[in-house]
Amino acid sequence: MVKRIETIIIARLFRHVFVLFLLLAIIGQLPVQMNHGQFGQVSAQVISQNIHRDEQRPLPHVSAAFGNKIEEVLIFIQPANPDSALNPGKAIALLSALEADRSQLNAYELVLLYQYFGYAYLAQENYARAADYFNRALAQSPHLPVAMEAQILLVLGQVYLVDDKPRQALNTMQRWTEYIDDMHPDQWALFAKIYYKLGDNDDALVNITEAIDAQLDNKKIPAESWYLLQHSLYVEKEDYKNGLVSLKKLVGYYPKARYWKSLSHIYGELKRDEESLAALEICYQLGGLTTEKELLNLSYLLMEENAPYKAAKVLRKGLYVDRIIAPDPNNLMLLAESLRLAKNSKESLVEYEKAAKNSRDPELILRLASAYYDNGKFKEASRTARTALKAPRLKRVDHANFVVGQAELAQNNFDEALTFFEAASKDLRSEASAKEWITYVEREKMKTSTTSATALPVRQ
Fold first, then answer.
1. Residues 293 and 146 grouped into a single domain
2. Calpha distance 256→261 (Å, rounded)
3. According to a count of CB atoms within 10 Å of the terminal CB, is the N or C end of the chain lower?
């Protein structure tokens, strides 16, 4: 009966502590088929060395009275209905009553008493008291089964890790290896996380890689936290090539937005810009870009890669749907420019007008003038470009003169057009082109009723 009790409570509460361990022990951040051997051949530092394999331990019997009381304890830490809430406080009260008469208990009964105390405090997440009672149970050795001693050591090692005592965790787990024949993948992972907490990244990397390889050998998918730890360790070593391998596994098995963002970063470190942008786009599609800076960065990258339509979609959604991007002149101008490059001059003009509203930036005003011209609004183009020319900070006066000249020419205002093309020709950067336009305007001016077949010069 007691053996059955031990089996039930160890299974239930071991799962409980392992979940806590997974949550707290790691401090952190197109499916690809790969062979786990890509990480290279490694040998885990930790090995099993069962020195207790043939040890025989005669144990005293557990009395029926003690067994009945333990059964009552289990009602509160292992209820028959799995949906029932635990009540470790009640279990501790019952165990305390047994402890008051501990002089009447034999050595094995003391082991069981302290062990269940440990599990009850563990259920309360009182790790210090849990560790104390597990140690009391271990202190009764050799008056407990070898397998039970190994199990208590394994749980105690994890308790120390969750309680941020990695040195005690390592010492305990090293004792545990003396009781086992084989290491399992999750146990190598446990050692890896202990070494990581101790700052021993080399041993952490060796052991987490062994855990991953062993799990793959078992035809199972390694835990997400294992790949995360392996990836972070490679990145800390600036080994981006191997970090990329583990990150590809993460996005293949656990395709979360944040892993695609990390993948984009790693590709960037490796100067693989197209793949970096592709990964960042997937991250965006999965909702992983949530700040203005991130969205603007993606937009700039898309425009650099000659994908202005995609950039415009990102900007428009960020500005008007999600309202993450501030509708300031710079951001509105970026949207307008992306729309212009995407050959959507009508919508581009709308955004330029919003951006230039109440603005005194001559560069922005000049862009608005060009947008008016592209949309056939020649009067507005001429007027707006003249406004830009009045600003003292305009960088390319020649460009503004061109816009006015072209806008006036489109309205057959030949003299006005000549005036501004001549002004543009005074800038050496535009002299040749401006003279072509002057020649063309003069020919057009001389025409009477017949349309000239002369080709228009290329517009600046």
1. no
2. 9
3. N
* Structural domains in the chain (count): 3
Final residue before a domain boundary, out of 359, 387, 420: 359
User: What pLDDT score does 332 carry?
Assistant: 97
Q: Taken in order 273, 279, 284, 290, is the CA torsion positive or negative? A: negative
Verify that 348 and 382 share a domain, yes or no: no
Q: Is the pLDDT of residue 184 over 70?
A: yes
Same domain, 142 and 11: yes
Residue 322, in any domain of the structure:
yes
CATH number, residue 433: 1.25.40
Residue 215 scores a pLDDT above 70: yes
Tokens for 299? 């937009």
Q: For residue 21, is pLDDT > 90?
A: no
Cβ-contact 230, 246 below 8 angstroms? yes
Is residue 298 included in any domain, yes or no? Answer: yes
The percent of residues above 90 in pLDDT, for the chain, comes to: 76
**Number of Cβ atoms within 10 Å of the Cβ of 358:** 5
Residues 9, 124 within the same domain: yes
Q: How confident is the model at residue 41 (pLDDT cuts 50, 70, 90)?
A: very low
Supply the Cα-derived Rg of the chain in whole angstroms: 37
The answer to whether 198 touches 166, Cβ cutoff 8 Å, is yes
For the entire predicted model, the pTM comes to 0.74
Omega before 166 cis (within 30°)?
no
Which structural domain, as residue segments, surrounds residue 331? 289-359
Question: pLDDT-derived band of residue 57, with 50, 70 and 90 as boundaries?
Answer: confident
The single residue listed with the structure tokens 């960042």 is: 280
Q: Per the omega criterion (within 30 degrees of 0), is the bond before 308 cis?
A: no
CA distance 47 to 398: 77
Q: 442 near 452, Cβ under 8 Å? A: no
> What is the Cα–Cα distance from 266 to 215, expressed in whole angstroms?
25
| Tens-digit pLDDT profile for residues 113-138 | 999 999 999 999 999 999 999 999 99
Q: Could you give the percent of the chain with pLDDT greater than 70? A: 85
Pick from 115, 148, 163: which residue ends a domain? 163
344 and 434 co-located in one domain: no
Query: What digits encode the pLDDT tens for the residues 191-209?
Result: 999 999 999 999 999 999 9
94 in the same domain as 134: yes
